[in-house]
């Protein structure tokens, strides 16, 4: 089985993505995670570009990587200087990495119009830079920037640039689709021509400006490339780099190539999520293989088929990449969705009447603006209510939120509420950063003495969306709140013309859900699918 090297440039190319800025600690953590995943190369950055990258290579000397090789990245020497005089090349040398990556110009347009040098001088710059670093004991990967655009404009010159890099000692020449505008058939042609020209191994570095980065990477591998350079989740400048999580899964599961460590494919999804968290980016739910929706089924016909034969609507087994199947419930669902979602858990798998009642209620609520795909806790409460297993811990009598603006311009919010719990009325009030925070705080203040398990309930995310925009400021809003508790992360939902009321519904559902599970766990009750 042929091995394809995975070269990760999340720390450099990925950091050029809009809205992404990695701290030094972030970069060290990502390094460890990529090494655990089993990538072959980690590009750490350009040590001359900023103090943080310089500090990273200082810190990285103490890294004990098990699988990956760390690389420093830089450019060919500047015009009019010898390689030994160039501070950028000295910085690459002084980074003390076994491998370095040097990028040079391939497209004659960039040579004459951007660099402002002759075509021959550019060839000399490439050869001198690679030869210097090789002479200093470094293994050089040469990145041929704009190779595909350069090949289209002047194929003979483009091939000369990679030939001189190989002759000067580059251990691999990587062809870069820097503008991301190439088509797979063009990539195939260029890779084959480059392989015919060189005996040195070939790599591919595609960008995604045409939405074809993954296709281009796979086309390059099929044509003989032995290394793919990209980023986790495809983050990067403009439309991003190729998403190597998708590339890795396709190489392993669809094309039969060897990459990463043998047992690391199952960590692909958790690595993807980890990088999103470190980069402070929202997860992309429909991301292939690793997204939350990659194996989510909503249509009743789909769910019915998947329940019988999983592969009927899934191209791979989700667990192979560390993901899992999700059955969604909505007005598009059939009873098979409800059965798949809650049948075994609540022993109603074959209780068609109950399943139909739950489905009817879901359909009616979604007609009012509810959506339960991301509100699984609220969905569970509906099922429990239908089967008589919903334990009510409290009932709301009233709440009130007041917002006043102080003379200094700072708003002050106070919430007061009255609830019935354990057969007695409890009144509480609290201030907060806003009405939702104040209302949540007041409810906790009222109930925590009675039900301490609420202290383990933490708000993670809050989303609000207009349901019927035509009503303008009188429109209904849908509030979905994500919480974390010992049960894991779960979502609840509320819908109302009043955003505070919608939020209250979601908060109340979360408290009920938490208390039910805490009580069942404390009492060590039989599993929920046991007969009741």
- How many helices? The count is 17
Largest sheet: 8 strands, parallel, barrel
Summarize the amount of helix as a percent range. Answer: 25-40%
The strands making up the biggest β-sheet line up spatially as 1-2-3-4-5-6-7-8
Number of strands: 16
Radius of gyration: 29 Å
How much β-strand is present in the residues?
A: 15-25%
Q: Which structural category do the helix and sheet elements fall into?
A: alpha/beta
Question: Can you tell me the CATH architecture of the largest domain?
Answer: Alpha-Beta Barrel
Q: Could you name the CATH topology of the largest domain?
A: TIM Barrel
Number of domains: 3
Please mark out the parts with pLDDT under 50 across 5 or more consecutive residues, or reply none. Answer: none
Q: State the end-to-end distance.
A: 54 Å
The shape is elongated
Mean pLDDT: 90
The CATH superfamily of the largest domain appears as: Aldolase class I
The first-level CATH class of the largest domain is given as Alpha Beta
Summary of the model, kept short:
The protein is α/β, with parallel strands linked by helices and 532 residues long.
Detailed description of the structure:
By secondary structure, this protein is an alpha/beta fold. The chain has 3 domains: about 5-260, TIM Barrel, CATH 3.20.20; about 355-390 and about 455-530, 2-Layer Sandwich (Double Stranded RNA Binding Domain), CATH 3.30.160.340; about 395-450, Double Stranded RNA Binding Domain (2-Layer Sandwich), CATH 3.30.160. Helix content is about 40%, strand content about 20%. The protein is built from 17 helices and 16 strands. The strands form 4 sheets. The protein has an 8-stranded parallel barrel with strand order 1-2-3-4-5-6-7-8, surrounded by 9 helices. Strands 11-12-13 form a 3-stranded antiparallel sheet, covered by helices on one side. Helix 5 runs parallel beside helix 7 (about 155-165), helix 8 packs parallel to helix 9 (about 215-220) and helix 14 (about 350-365) crosses helix 15 (about 375-385). About 45% of the residues are buried. The mean pLDDT is about 90.
């Amino acid at each position: 089985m042929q091995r394809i090297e995975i070269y990760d440039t999340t720390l450099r190319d990925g950091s050029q993505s809009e809205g992404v800025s990695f701290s030094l600690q972030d970069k060290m953590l990502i390094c460890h995670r990529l090494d655990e995943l089993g990538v072959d190369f980690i590009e750490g950055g350009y040590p001359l570009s900023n103090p943080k990258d310089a500090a990273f290579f200082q810190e990285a000397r103490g890294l004990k990587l098990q699988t990956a090789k760390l690389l420093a990245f830089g450019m060919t020497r500047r015009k009019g200087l010898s390689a030994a005089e160039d501070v950028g090349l000295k910085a690459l040398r002084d980074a003390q990495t076994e491998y370095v990556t040097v990028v040079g110009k391939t497209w004659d347009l960039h040579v004459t119009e951007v660099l402002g040098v002759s075509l021959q001088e550019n060839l000399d710059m490439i050869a001198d830079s690679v030869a210097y670093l090789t002479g200093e004991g470094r293994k050089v990967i040469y990145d041929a920037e704009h190779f595909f655009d350069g090949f289209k404009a002047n194929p003979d010159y483009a091939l000369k640039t990679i030939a001189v890099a190989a002759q000067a000692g580059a251990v691999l020449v990587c062809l870069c689709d820097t503008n991301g505008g190439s088509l797979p058939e063009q990539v195939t042609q260029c890779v084959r021509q480059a392989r015919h020209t060189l005996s040195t191994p070939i790599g591919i570095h595609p960008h995604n400006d045409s939405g074809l980065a993954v296709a281009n990477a796979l086309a390059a591998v099929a044509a003989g490339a032995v290394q793919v350079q990209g980023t986790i989740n495809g983050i990067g400048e403009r439309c991003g780099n190729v998403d190597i999580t998708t590339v890795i899964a396709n190489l392993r599961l669809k094309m039969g190539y060897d990459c990463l460590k043998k047992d690391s494919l199952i960590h692909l999804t958790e690595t993807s999520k980890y990088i999103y968290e470190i980069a402070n980016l929202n997860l992309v739910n429909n991301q292939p293989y690793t997204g939350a929706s990659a194996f989510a089924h909503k249509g009743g016909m789909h769910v019915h088929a998947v329940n019988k034969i999983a592969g009927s609507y899934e191209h791979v087994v989700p667990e192979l990449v560390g993901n899992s199947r999700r059955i969604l419930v909505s007005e598009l669902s059939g009873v098979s969705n409800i059965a798949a979602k809650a049948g075994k858990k609540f022993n109603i798998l074959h209780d068609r009447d109950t399943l139909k009642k739950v489905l009817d209620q879901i359909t009616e609520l979604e007609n009012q603006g509810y959506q339960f795909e991301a509100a699984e806790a609220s969905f569970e409460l509906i099922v429990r209510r239908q089967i008589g297993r919903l334990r009510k811990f409290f009932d709301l009598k009233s709440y009130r939120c007041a917002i006043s603006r102080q003379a200094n311009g700072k708003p002050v919010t106070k919430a007061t509420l009255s609830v019935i719990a354990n057969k007695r009325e409890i009144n509480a009030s609290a201030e907060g950063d806003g009405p939702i925070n104040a209302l949540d705080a007041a409810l906790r203040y009222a109930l925590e003495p009675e039900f301490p398990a609420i202290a383990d309930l933490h708000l993670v995310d809050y989303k609000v969306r207009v349901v019927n925009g035509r009503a303008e400021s009188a429109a209904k809003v849908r509030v979905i709140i994500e919480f974390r508790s010992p049960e894991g992360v779960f979502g609840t939902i509320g819908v109302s013309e009043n955003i505070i009321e919608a939020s209250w519904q979601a908060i109340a559902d979360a408290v009920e859900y938490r208390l039910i599970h805490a009580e069942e766990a404390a009492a060590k009750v039989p599993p929920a699918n046991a007969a009741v």
